[in-house]
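User: Predict structure, ligand iron/sulfur cluster.
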Amino acid sequence: MAGIYIHVPFCRKKCSYCDFHFSTNFEGYRGALISKIGEEIAYRKDELPFPIETIYFGGGTPSILHKEELKVIWDSITHHYDISSLTEVTLEVNPEDVNEKNLSVWKSLGVNRLSIGIQSLKESDLRWMNRAHDTTDGFRAVEMAKEFGFERINVDVIYGLPDLSMAEWSSALEKVVLLPIDHISAYCLTVEKKTALNNFVERGQIVIPTEDAITEQFEVLVEKLSLHGFMQYEVSNFARDGREAVHNTNYWRGVAYSGFGPSAHSFNGTARRWNIANNLLYNRVNFSEDSWYEEEMLSTENQWNELFLTGLRTKWGVSKEVICRFGGLQKAETLKLEFWGNQNCIKESEYSISLTRKGMLLADKIAQDFFRLTK
Ligand SMILES: C[S@@+](CC[C@H](N)C(=O)[O-])C[C@H]1O[C@@H](n2cnc3c(N)ncnc32)[C@H](O)[C@@H]1O
Ligand code: SF4
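Assistant: Predicted complex:
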């Protein structure tokens, strides 16, 4: 099995915190770029010799696309790949794009999972974030999608926001869990360089909460969501009724995927590659001649490091059988395992090493303790 990721590098507005690849000035070339993505999908058809299980339209803002544009991409996938095992087709959606016409287009094209970016339930947050919607739009979008028959809906929310009191955070979560959704992705706000948020923080206009406050928000998040049936299966991801995102879970399990479009990443089991992150240059590429992506073969050490970095973030942890295939833990790593076990951050079963709820708070730091030097 394998996955397909499509990167749609267009956005209506530039959110102040976001450093994903996108342009807000794309009307002049949008059609050409979509055709180019269709071409790339066809050109790379032999790279994935497995049936496709999941397709993920991400961005940027894929919900900006018109029916004809989505169809160009869809047709290219269905003509060139084996989709007989396709189970999950996710579309990232911005709340302002949810209306009956679009919902009907998405449904007719086989999209069966929507990921809606509501981000915050505080109007003032959505304003400094420069979002193109308000909190009412966020709720309305979710309700409308559900009424339209979408059974699988995720919402993206961000915590660690400035001036977010615990009472506000708790009350926001109480509202989110009542939505007709089966999945929540909750990300901690990161201040990325070259974003407007970074400027606000440097000028002192926005103050990021302390680590203790963020930890408290995270603890309340995990507690409240689990009380309402949303189980944490990855540091930032929670699902109800076992409705975990197959596409994302496959990433963490090391399943191969091809990413199409500017800046999209791909993984074939041994190498990672990433496309040129420039819309105009991507549009001009001759796939068979030009150099338009970079590639890195993963050394054994890199594979080991990724195993811990991604595996420890999930409830499945790192498989002991896989650890054995790498020759087992080295002495220093066994000591680290003991140390984090004594801190009640790591638990062991017969089959795996995984993090406790306390450990989830420190997932990346703990993973780094197991990293091996790359050559
Ligand atoms: C690349 S965005 C695309 C989704 C969609 N365009 C939207 O805005 O709703 C995917 C998600 O990443 C999260 N995200 C992006 N930048 C972030 C940051 N600096 N800190 C925390 N979360 C971030 C947001 O929750 C966002 O919904
Ligand atoms: S958060 Fe979404 S809408 Fe905002 S700039 Fe990033 S990709 Fe675009």
